[in-house]
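TICKET: design request
STATUS: open
ATTACHED STRUCTURE:
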């Protein structure tokens, strides 16, 4: 099945699960032509279709409740209930039960395709795997005041970046949010917050097309923002004839090996979170090779800690890893990246043709 056919089939399925924003889908289609890295981020549905063929020898790997859409941009910062700065996976939209190794392969593939990475591919794979193994053995959240303190300068927010954040919020188009969304957004704000307006925005890559609403409110001297994003089943279920449950998202986001964001929640068919200038990703453009290696190690560790939440998984995975050759992650990520690049080229060609034909 071609990427064009697969995308159409997935988007038809998506229409059955939420009120798709067609303008955002068109934006997504255009972004998918920008680079293989962005294409990978936008097409977990295609990955879910193909990865078992690409990594066929991993099909029998122990299954866990996995992240699914792991990639370099799927990690960020938040404040936990004690006000501590935490870093880790911050998007579980595609969570489902699958072989543990596919989370690692997708992360390694994204590292290979990243335009900002200068770390060798073998070194990247080794760093991810080493971090993963430590995360399985010592599952814990990443506290930026105690572990990975080297990250703190990279996630610090400058005055200019704070202004850019609020400028972006101010540019979001005001809308009349559907009553059920508005009610839930208000419920996720402090009781004495005063709503200024509701807005929409288009963010991310893979989730483009799902409706997103913002509640922008004033509370005790300043503004605060909450987001509601439509929750749909994982595309892994789309390819395998099953539907993941919303509980999978909360199980991973709030599990015992994490120090969760207290503002992250699932309420009905919506995911809620706090939006703020200090909830951010690490800017890889500011990193040298040494920091890139440390970052990939930390990413692997966080994935390992998440997988360790599945009962009995840590021991089974450790035993399975012992059966694999040392270069397995590098090899399969290389094969996966080649498939992604081929799909990307096909998509870019077809998209250009459609635009020329007025489609």
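STATUS: resolved
RESOLUTION: sequence designed for all positions
ATTACHED SEQUENCE:
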């Amino acid at each position: 099945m071609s990427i064009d056919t697969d995308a159409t089939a997935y988007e038809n399925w998506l229409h059955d699960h939420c009120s798709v924003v067609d303008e955002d889908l068109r934006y997504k289609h255009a972004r998918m032509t920008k680079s293989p890295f962005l294409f990978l981020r936008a097409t977990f549905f295609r990955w879910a279709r193909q990865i078992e063929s690409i990594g066929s020898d991993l099909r029998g790997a122990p299954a866990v409740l996995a992240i699914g859409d792991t990639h370099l941009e799927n990690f960020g910062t938040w404040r936990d209930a004690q006000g501590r700065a935490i870093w880790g996976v911050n998007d579980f939209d595609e969570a489902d039960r699958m072989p543990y190794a596919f989370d690692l392969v997708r992360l390694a593939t994204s590292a290979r395709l990243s335009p900002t990475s200068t770390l060798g591919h073998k070194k990247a794979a080794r760093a991810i795997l080493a971090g993963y193994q430590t995360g399985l053995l010592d599952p814990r959240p990443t506290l930026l005041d105690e572990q990975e303190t080297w990250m703190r300068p990279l996630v610090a927010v400058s005055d200019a970046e704070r202004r850019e954040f609020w400028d972006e919020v101010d540019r979001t188009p005001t809308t009349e949010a559907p009553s059920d969304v508005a009610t839930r957004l208000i419920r996720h704000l402090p009781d004495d917050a005063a709503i200024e307006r509701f807005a929409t925005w288009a963010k991310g890559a893979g989730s483009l097309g799902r409706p997103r609403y913002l509640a922008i409110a004033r509370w005790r001297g300043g503004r605060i923002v909450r987001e509601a994003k439509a929750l749909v089943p994982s595309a892994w279920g789309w390819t395998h004839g099953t539907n993941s449950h919303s509980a999978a998202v909360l199980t991973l986001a709030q599990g015992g090996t994490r120090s969760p964001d207290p503002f992250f929640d699932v309420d009905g068919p919506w995911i809620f979170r706090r939006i703020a200038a200090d909830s951010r990703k690490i800017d890889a453009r500011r990193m040298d090779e040494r920091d890139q290696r440390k970052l990939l190690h930390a990413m692997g560790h966080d994935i390992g800690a998440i997988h360790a939440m599945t009962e009995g998984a840590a021991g089974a995975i450790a035993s399975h890893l012992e059966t694999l050759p040392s270069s397995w992650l590098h090899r399969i990520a290389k094969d996966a990246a080649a498939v992604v690049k081929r799909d990307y080229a096909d998509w870019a060609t077809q998209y250009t043709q459609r635009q020329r034909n007025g489609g």
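CLOSING REMARK: DSSP finds 14 helices and eleven strands in the chain. The first strand starts at residue 63 and ends at 66.
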